[in-house]
């Protein structure tokens, strides 16, 4: 599941006439960086949610083999958006991925899938140690215990990639809600886990993140 519905307001003028996933980094749209990782991983079903300027993203993805989940008239946030997409995604755990970051290192989806244990995990979050997170300010989101259990607090930064079971989504009455509500339920049951990514990651949520990401990738348009 690719999250691509947001307004991208932190991008300023760059998203005045295009959705953030179409902002170009290192010669191609952000969503294509995510799709490269998805294809390399070998996902058998890929879904993207759309809301802001959806026609542009729909046209871009027309030949990409991506199913679409339209959110209208209101945007549903991450939790509501994931629940809305379930008829397209199907049953079972889902990998979700934000589309406003660029990676350098092993495929994050492979790294996460190799550690997934559905017998004890309801979600497994991929987090970035602060020294490996480029373009991201803040103290971090989660601390990771020796047994990989996650605890909220200053530590590693949530990367926007996770494997998550979806059954608890149906217990939330709101139509629009953050996945944080789901994580809180999992934390209460000691079933929220996290792992650190061994490579580098760049947050491209703001215009200055574009140059940072291109430098990380060693890319030049000259």
Automatic annotation (TrEMBL):
UniProt keyword Magnesium present: yes
SUPFAM superfamilies membership: Nucleotide-diphospho-sugar transferases
Pfam families cross-referenced by the UniProt entry: NTP_transf_3
Highest rank taxon of the organism: Bacteria
CDD domains: NTP_transferase_like_1 (cd06422)
Record InterPro entries: GlmU-like, MobA-like_NTP_Trfase, Nucleotide-diphossugar_trans
Gene3D superfamilies assigned: Spore Coat Polysaccharide Biosynthesis Protein SpsA, Chain A (3.90.550.10)
Keyword Mitochondrion tagged: no
Domain MobA-like NTP transferase: 3-125
Keywords, alphabetical: Magnesium, Nucleotidyltransferase, Transferase
A molecular-function term among this protein's GO annotations: nucleotidyltransferase activity
Protein name in UniProt: Bifunctional N-acetylglucosamine-1-phosphate uridyltransferase/glucosamine-1-phosphate acetyltransferase
Top-level taxonomy: Bacteria, Pseudomonadati, Pseudomonadota, Alphaproteobacteria, Rhodobacterales
